[in-house]
Amino acid sequence: MKTLNLFLTVLFVIGFSASATAQAHDHSKMNTASAKTESFKVSGNCDMCKNRIEKIVKAEGATSASWDSKTQLITVTYDPSKTNKDALSKKIASVGHDTEKYKAPDDVYAKLPECCRYERTR
Ligand SMILES: [Cu+2]
User: What is the pTM of this model?
Assistant: First the structure.
């Protein structure tokens, strides 16, 4: 009986350390794949705006970006260790499009093609 108990204990310890290693492995895997997806408001008008907005967030590190002119919403997916909503939203404002949080500089807005000069609500 004693030897059986010892045998079971050894098995348990081996099993435990094996699963602990597996968990550590999974954890590192999760870290690299923890992409974040968020939506926020971005003002714009046309397809040119769509291209401009999506291009700048991708250049800023977003893995995917989709802006909808009807809803005025952008949906971005990004790696939170590389960028964040605030940085992306700041970048969008810097090319002429107002966001929830940042207003585009007036001179940049004024230089947008006529079709892109969306109505400013703020
Ligand atoms: Cu436009």
Answer: 0.73
